[in-house]
Every structure is written in C-alpha cells, then in structure tokens.
Amino acid sequence: MSDRRSAVAETESEQLLNEIGRLLMEDGEYSSEPTLLYAQLDHNMIGESIFKELGNQLLFRWPINQRLPYALLELWEAQDGQNRWSELEYVVRDGKFDVAYFYPDEIDPQEDVTERRERALQRHFGDKPIVYPPLPTEDELQSYGL
User: Fold this and answer.
1) Contact predicate 36/90, CB 8 Å
2) Residue 45: beta bridge partners?
3) pLDDT in tens, 76-93
4) How far is CA 84 from CA 27, 41, 97, 116, 145, in A?
5) 8, 25, 137, 145: which sits with the fewest CB atoms below 10 Å from its CB?
6) For the whole model, what pTM was predicted?
C-alpha cells in the first residue's frame, strides 16, 4: 500500500512541478526564459523570489499568478514524512526545468536566505546585476481591517 501512495505522490509532484513552470511562463510582460524561482517553505510560510535573465542583467519579478504560492505549498505538502525540503531552486531554460531541493539539515541556520539565493543566482546566471522594481505605493498596497 505504501508503494502505491509513493507512486501517486510522485505523479502529483510531477504535475505540480509542470504547473509551476507553466505559471512562471504566464508573466505576460516577461515570459522569457531563463527564469529562476527560489522558494522557501515551512509550516504557515511561503516565500518566493522570481528572477528573469534579460541579457546582461537579472530582473526580479513579483509573482504574477496568485496560484503559484499554492502550487508550491501543495508540492511541499506532497512529501512524505517529517523530513521535507525547506528551500528549492526551480530553473526554466530552453523549454525545460531543473529543480534542486534543500533540506533543513543542509542549510546553515545562521545564514540568511538572501545569501543562499544570491549564490543560486550566481550559479545559474553568473555575476549579473539585479534590477528590482520600485516598491508599491500606498495606493497599490492592500489593507485589511481588523
């Protein structure tokens, strides 16, 4: 029975990985490849950073599709057991994707996630400057009443 669950989970994970790639390419303004998604997940926490390579620079993109964090969470929750990965690198290049998972025991708790993300960018794209969009104005931010 556990072998069957494992096969089902693998199929579900593969479907979610394909969906993540599709969601990353739905960026109508910058649907280009290569793209790096660096994500950090834990219980009640999802943090994703998307970078698009544009020639001699990298462009940081806010997630365009609201489905992306849910697909990441579903992928994270599809893992069996307590030893779930906590960060991933998802790279889309030449119509294909590669994924690397990082588990809690592989991550230095004293190191900031931005340092690991910077290393991932260097590894996949070399030493290129990163262009960040302007921060949203107060009118663009959503506010919630208590």
Assistant:
1) yes
2) 42
3) 998 877 788 999 999 999
4) 29, 9, 21, 18, 35
5) 145
6) 0.83
